Amino acid sequence: MDLQGKRILLIISGGIAAYKSLDLIRRLRERGATVRPVMSRAAQEFITPLAVGALSASHVYTDLFSREDEQDVGHIRLARDCDLVLVAPATADLMAKMAHGLADDLPSAVLLATDRPVLLAPAMNPVMWNAAPTRRNLDTLKADGVCLIGPMRGEMAESGEAGTGRMAEPLEIVAAAAALLLPQEKPLAGKRAIVTSGPTHEPIDPVRYIANRSSGKQGHAIAAALARLGADVTLVSGPVTIPDPAGVAVTHVETAEDMLSAVLSALPADIAVMVAAVADWRVVASAGQKIKKKPGEPPAPLLLAENPDILKTVGHHPDRPRLVIGFAAETQEVETNGRRKLDAKGADMIIANDVSPATGIMGGDHNRVKIISSGGIEEWPDLAKDAVAERLAALVADRLSKPA
Ligand code: C5P
Question: What atom of ligand 1 comes closest to residue 330's alpha carbon?
């Protein structure tokens, strides 16, 4: 990772994790970056400007009202004469100031004045990280385009409490900074992808429907990961409560039939990843009015019809994408059922996972999958759904880089 010539404005705010910022400065400079440090008043309670200045080989900026510093560079130039503003550690207090546009000290004034990418490495007690005001501020900062690395899970330095709040390690922060500073490879540039995600809702009457427990987390993560590699992604999403992923065109649908027509109208494409937990059946004639209980009478039977199989339709379509990938959510005989689906649906790959309630996969943040293709089976370890998406996008890029 070569950061030669990159100029990083490092804001150190006041937390015990500030001790790691000294190592962070060394790691950044080892890679050729120049580091100009800004310290909050509280940061100077944890580490000294002398140490920060020595390691960065730079003047350390601490005071918004310093006559020399303001004459020399000034807080506006500090905010602009850099390629990245990195805040490590970012305290709950500084994040709150940023979210509200406060600017009553040098770090907050610089953050308000900058037009450069901003990367935060938060560090705080887990209870502070989970507190409602921090959650609200975080949402605001994300919506403002601020990037984050961490915090990580682990034991807190001061209290020994475990939870999420530990600052990312210096090398993790360097990697996140590099991802923002260096041009990223876009191996899927110029490729079109269709992804389905979430459940479908099949109406029984105007107020009731048949549904399943799919959250859409895995499908949405895959759509976002493909987009990050440069693909032009259409995400066809059933009803979910999670937000639309960034950089993706989203079509929202309710039923399997609507999902099928949205997918077909997004063809042709190079890649199709059908992650949605499509309802197998729909109610033949959903009632126009709410079905009422009738005293003394048994409940009305529901007559069901099979829904169209979207994956199978796409897998056998004249405009079949070059790479068709399906999922197989199973509760037993995961491999056998996955292999069977590969042929039956005309897919190139089936991602099989065990969704038995004990696994916590359905609706959870983790997934453990097996990749079944004509070449055999590859088993991936237990990973965050985002990490599964990242790996799958890399696999897709690899497959498409080879001759058909
Ligand atoms: O047959 P089963 O539902 O287990 O197959 C799962 C795979 O098929 C998933 O990729 C799912 O998105 C897709 N599927 C579909 N349309 C259906 C049923 C499943 O696209 N009606």
Answer: 4
Q: How far is the CA of 311 from the centre of ligand 1 (A)?
A: 6
pLDDT reported for residue 65: 86
Domains of the chain (ranges; CATH) run 7-181 (3.40.50.1950), 192-400 (3.40.50.10300)
Closest atom of ligand 1 relative to the 310 alpha carbon = 20
User: Could you give the maximum distance between any two Cα atoms of the chain, in Å?
Assistant: 89
378-391 pLDDT, tens per residue? 999 888 888 899 99
Does residue 311 line the site of ligand 1, with CB under 6 A? Answer: yes
Alpha helices in 117-253 (DSSP H): 126-130, 132-143, 170-181, 217-228
Tell me phi and psi for residue 344, to 5 degrees: -60, -35
Q: Which of 62, 51, 54 has the alpha carbon at shortest distance from 18?
A: 51
pLDDT tens by residue, 258-269 = 999 999 999 999
What average pLDDT does the chain have?
93
How far is residue 132 CA from its own chain's centroid? Answer: 21
Spell out the residues 6+ positions from residue 38 whose beta carbon is closer than 8 angstroms to its own.
9, 10, 11, 12, 60, 61, 62, 78, 106, 107, 110
